[in-house]
Specification:
Structural class: alpha/beta
Shape: globular
Distance between the termini: 51 Å
CATH superfamily of the largest domain: Metal-dependent hydrolases
CATH architecture of the largest domain: Alpha-Beta Barrel
Strand content: 15-25%
Largest sheet: 9 strands, mixed
CATH class of the largest domain: Alpha Beta
Helix content: 25-40%
Number of helices: 14
Number of domains: 2
CATH topology of the largest domain: TIM Barrel
Amino acid sequence: MKQLLKNALVLRDGHSDPVAENIMVDGDRIAGFTQMDSLPDYMNVDLSGRLVIPGFVQTHVHFCQVMLRGTADDMALLDWLRTRIWPLEAAHDEESTYLSALLAGTELLAGGVTCVCIMESVRHADAAARAVEELGLRAVFGKVMMDYTDTPPELGGLPASFIETTQQTLDESLRLLKRWHGAAGGRISYGLMPRGILTTSEELLLRIRDLSAEYGVLVHTHACETLPESRLVEQRRGQTEIKYLHRLGLANERLLLAHCVCVDDEDIRILQEQQVKVASCPLTNLKLASGIAPLEKMADAGITLSLGSDGAPCNNTLDMFTEMRFASLLQKGTLHQPTAMTAQRTFEIATLGGAKALGMAEDIGVLAPGKKADLAVIDWNHPQTAPQKPSVAGLVYSGGAHMVTDTMVDGRFVYRNKKPVAVDTNILRHRAQTALEKLLQRSNI
């Protein structure tokens, strides 16, 4: 189908100014831009003067945790995992996993996110992928891989349903890879996702390294999130996380690390030289008191940065506008430099940076001829943006998810006139509440 998105202001990337022009969408890609009001064979779509931006790319989200929003507030990371999140996550069944993924996906679409990297739980990853497929999101997803049962006392014992042998977790990951990698017309990709070094054996990490090279797929894991965690890794593996991953040969262009709060100059050098990508989660790192990642320093070193919201229990929203604002302001405040993490740099991290982190920069991250038609439509007519004209700085410092009216993925509106196309949110909310009550009963928390 050919569509002419008319009467819009178009922000093609983080370095340009919005321009009044019409977008030509042919199938799943942008065919070009024009000032013409109509074109043969094109269906007119009137956007009524709204702002069109590249879709945001979220690079670290736990869909299975969205149903657990508000169940683990005001806790430190290791206690948060041991006493709340792992028991609750382990209590998921297929239905609750599916509904949690639907909740997460609709929230992301409502906030202008078109592509996401999802770290699912140990079980029921197919259910989450099915939700992604139905919603129309673009995604890289993977089941979390955990085979190391000799966890530190600080983490306690793993839930029984989390315990897999090395071969079991590899076999299930390969099954999911063969089922979902390239599914939904290429919208869904698969990644290998060890949860973290403290729950992953060295044998499994080495096997993941080899499988990533064999299949050419992303490896995504947590790293350097808190000082206590980093110290435990050093005690058990002899090196802090990034140095350890580098020694194993995992530090390469296919590796995406979430957080990277507790990094030193040597870590940053490794990340830069080995082309490792970073997914920063500013709000989660604040709420869990993990610290503030040195984003400006990493950006200046040439490291590819991106943004994620992590899990709803440690963030409470999946709002990329808020992540952008905090990513920028935290760097300015901690460095005492008002020019640190500019609006342009931050917006690019949230769009093209995410695309680069997921290996998709050829297709998404900017609005340009030949790129995928992945975009968000913004209503600028809100009190917090008045009287400024639409701009990148306005999006970063004044914007919010409530301003998104429409989201398009692959040339198809998947969120239209402030409603998801694939689901009824009222019915979904009711089903999710019922499923949560059953989940809480199963967890005995």
